[in-house]
């Protein structure tokens, strides 16, 4: 028993070291811009850089749009699959995995071919159009996470009976979706939303090939041209991502109990 | 007094190739409490869902108040429904659950609030308006679900096994409460159950269903005492089946095991030597002390279960096992297993004689 415990700690320690050492090394490096000791100068430089502020807020806004569009598209889809066609759920689930199987580079070249300035829908012809295209691309990239999160949320409620109960009281589909179904899966939706945000903040391929000033290309650019700032950036985005994860956990804990007692 | 309020005409329902309801005709009177009773899978829920509008009949038509409603959406039918799983909206408190239908219908807020308070009073939970479903017991949840269904004043109320998820004690008190509320409001109510005792105790009429068709429609007293088919006799209440053989048709003599009795109810069509089955309710049998002018059989006691007001005695007459229900009498001890005694019944209590 004691030996067992000992070895589990060893394995845990090795695992932790594997993940934490590079992080600590990066942190240490990001603080050593001066010879004479640790300083936050690298962080100061990063935050002072207008490029950082612009790309960070650009990606944040695109991220929020992605979340909204994603919820508006995926929520009703997942709901109707559960309500009307539960037998095709595995197929839909597989389809939502496609973005994980097909590399984003293929996706973006497909987009550029389909929506270039001489196509039937020249989205890449204008800045707004390209922003829309980027958002839709991110919706596709986030779909595996978003769909799964929402579907898991829907599993915890009796979609069929709640829908029928509301229907017979006269509620429309839209009302049922927004007033009954959505509020009951909001925790799950938010966890999908934070994952989406984390993905969008670090995404490079789509933003760069569509030539939009995303945070991902910015990080890449800094990485290629500076010494200490990239490490600071890495730590910043790491903290950002982890805050999102912690937020998910907290939301899950403090969300009102939503499932009814069954006794 | 009773006018027909809801009519199902020649309803057939097919799922794929599976015909679940066959050519069913049924009518409900205004203000009536009708139970649909039958074994699992016989199509009770399907009938209810067609009345609610969640399923469309494959064939046939449905009329409510003289108007055809076969193709109306559930929301246009003005019916209230209560589900087995309560189905309260988990994100809304009790008040908002009850008020949901009113809000959807655009009832002004003050009026809706008044109606919700009235409903809370009706179900006897005036102080629980701010609770959420997970803070209520099953019985309370189902009462809230009832109030939610009734709040918009529907013209009929549909209940699909509303009590099945509750424990025995609450089941009995809640079914009485449902019945009282129904009487008070005079609302036409259709109650689905597979529990015959439940159906017998609260219904004006019972519709006994089996495999997608109706076996019998009638008042509880009638269905229990004059079952129209062997299925009804078996399904509603406990039934003793006494296997016998015609000994002498002319003399109405019947052999039950080694013993022979005279049965005046014997149909004229039977012939000597033919096997027959007599159906009897447990309460139609009694223990005989001394002389009796009825029919008597020697029996051995095999099991005795004390059910409170009733004592159910299992006896063997030859190879046939029978249940005898006796009223509990505190002055005399019940029979003991192993004892031999005489069991009697009257001719007119034989429910059916079948070949
Ligand atoms: N949506 C459906 N698709 C296919 N078959 C169905 C569907 N709904 C019901 N059935 C079938 O119809 C038959 C009757 O079902 P129904 O639910 O009406 O029975 P029930 O009398 O309510 O039974 P229970 O007491 O178990 O609730 C069953 O054989 C069932 O499998
Ligand atoms: Mg059913």
Automatic annotation (TrEMBL), chain A:
GO CC term, one of those recorded: plasma membrane
SUPFAM superfamilies: MetI-like
Domain ABC transmembrane type-1: 56-251
Annotated localization: Cell inner membrane; Cell membrane
Gene Ontology biological process terms in this record: transmembrane transport
Pfam families: BPD_transp_1
Keyword Cell cycle tagged: no
Keyword annotations from UniProtKB, A to Z: Cell inner membrane, Cell membrane, Membrane, Transmembrane, Transmembrane helix, Transport
InterPro entries named among the record's database cross-references: MetI-like (IPR000515), MetI-like_sf (IPR035906)
Membrane topology: Multi-pass membrane protein
Residues annotated as transmembrane: 7-25, 56-79, 91-114, 120-141, 181-210, 230-252
Family: Belongs to the binding-protein-dependent transport system permease family.
Stated name of the protein: Putative spermidine/putrescine transport system permease protein
Source organism per UniProt: Afifella marina DSM 2698
Lineage of the species this protein comes from: Bacteria, Pseudomonadati, Pseudomonadota, Alphaproteobacteria, Hyphomicrobiales
UniProtKB/TrEMBL annotation, chain B:
This protein's GO CC annotations: ATP-binding cassette (ABC) transporter complex
Cross-referenced PANTHER family: SPERMIDINE/PUTRESCINE IMPORT ATP-BINDING PROTEIN POTA (PTHR42781), SPERMIDINE_PUTRESCINE IMPORT ATP-BINDING PROTEIN POTA (PTHR42781:SF4)
Similarity-based family: Belongs to the ABC transporter superfamily.
Organism, scientific name: Afifella marina DSM 2698
ABC transporter domain residues: 6-236
UniProt keywords, alphabetically: ATP-binding, Nucleotide-binding, Transport
GO molecular function: ATP binding; ATP hydrolysis activity; transmembrane transporter activity
Keyword Nucleotide-binding in record: yes
SUPFAM superfamilies: MOP-like (SSF50331), P-loop containing nucleoside triphosphate hydrolases (SSF52540)
Protein name: Putative spermidine/putrescine transport system ATP-binding protein
Pfam families the UniProt entry points to: ABC_tran, TOBE_2
UniProt entry tagged with the keyword Ribonucleoprotein: no
Biological processes, Gene Ontology terms: quaternary ammonium group transport
Membrane-spanning intervals of the chain: none
């Amino acid at each position: 028993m004691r030996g067992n415990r000992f070895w589990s700690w060893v394995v845990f320690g090795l695992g932790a070291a594997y993940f934490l050492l590079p992080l600590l090394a990066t942190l240490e490096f990001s603080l050593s811009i001066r010879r004479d000791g640790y300083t936050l100068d690298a962080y100061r430089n990063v935050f002072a850089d207008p490029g950082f502020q612009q790309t960070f807020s650009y990606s944040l806004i695109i991220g929020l749009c992605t979340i909204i569009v994603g919820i508006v598209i995926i929520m009703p889809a997942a709901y109707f699959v559960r309500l009307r066609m539960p037998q095709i759920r595995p197929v839909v689930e597989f389809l939502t995995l496609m973005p994980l199987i097909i590399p984003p580079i293929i996706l973006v070249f497909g987009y550029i071919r389909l929506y270039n300035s001489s196509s039937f829908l020249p989205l890449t012809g204008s800045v707004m159009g390209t922003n829309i295209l980027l958002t839709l691309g991110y919706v596709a990239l986030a779909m595996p996470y978003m769909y799964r999160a929402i579907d898991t949320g829907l599993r915890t409620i009796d979609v069929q009976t709640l829908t029928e109960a509301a229907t017979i009281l006269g509620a429309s589909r839209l009302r049922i979706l927004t007033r009954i179904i959505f509020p009951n899966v909001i925790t799950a939706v938010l966890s999908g939303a934070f994952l989406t945000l984390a993905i969008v903040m670090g995404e490079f391929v789509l933003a760069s090939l569509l030539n939009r000033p995303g945070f991902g290309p910015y990080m890449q650019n800094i990485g290629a041209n500076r010494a200490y700032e990239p490490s600071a950036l890495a730590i910043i985005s790491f903290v950002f991502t982890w805050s999102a994860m912690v937020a998910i956990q907290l939301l899950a804990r403090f969300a009102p109990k939503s499932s009814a007692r069954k006794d | 007094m009773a006018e027909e309020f809801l009519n199902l005409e020649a309803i057939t329902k097919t799922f794929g190739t599976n015909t679940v309801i066959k050519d069913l005709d049924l009518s409900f009177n205004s203000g009536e409490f009708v139970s649909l009773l039958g074994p699992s899978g016989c199509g009770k829920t399907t009938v209810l869902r067609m009345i609610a509008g969640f399923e469309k009949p494959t064939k046939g038509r449905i009329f409510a108040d003289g108007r055809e409603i076969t193709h109306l959406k559930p929301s246009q039918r003005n019916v209230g429904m209560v589900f087995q799983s309560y189905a309260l909206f988990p994100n809304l408190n009790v008040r908002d659950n009850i008020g949901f239908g009113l809000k959807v219908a655009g009832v002004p807020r003050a009026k809706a609030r008044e109606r919700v308070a009235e409903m809370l009073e009706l179900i006897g939970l005036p102080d629980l308006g701010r609770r959420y479903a997970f803070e209520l017991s099953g019985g309370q949840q189902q009462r809230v679900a009832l109030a939610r269904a009734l709040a918009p004043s529907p013209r009929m109320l549909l209940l699909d096994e509303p009590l099945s998820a509750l424990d025995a004690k609450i089941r009995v008190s809640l079914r009485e409460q449902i019945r009282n509320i129904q009487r008070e409001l005079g609302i036409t109510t259709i109650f689905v159950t597979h529990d015959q005792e439940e159906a017998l105790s609260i219904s004006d009429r019972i519709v006994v269903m089996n495999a997608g068709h109706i076996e019998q429609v009638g008042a509880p007293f009638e269905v229990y005492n004059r079952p129209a088919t062997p299925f009804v006799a078996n399904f509603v209440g406990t039934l003793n089946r006494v296997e016998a053989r015609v000994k002498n048709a002319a003399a109405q003599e019947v052999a039950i095991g080694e013993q022979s009795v005279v049965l005046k109810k014997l149909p004229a069509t039977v012939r000597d030597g033919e096997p027959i089955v007599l159906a009897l309710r447990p309460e139609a049998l009694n223990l005989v002390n001394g002389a009796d002018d009825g029919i008597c059989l020697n029996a051995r006691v095999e099991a005795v279960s004390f059910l409170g007001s009733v004592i159910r005695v299992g006896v063997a007459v030859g190879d046939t096992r029978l249940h005898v229900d006796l009223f509990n009498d505190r002055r005399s001890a019940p029979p003991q297993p192993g004892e031999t005694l005489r069991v009697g019944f009257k001719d007119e209590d034989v429910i059916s004689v079948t070949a």
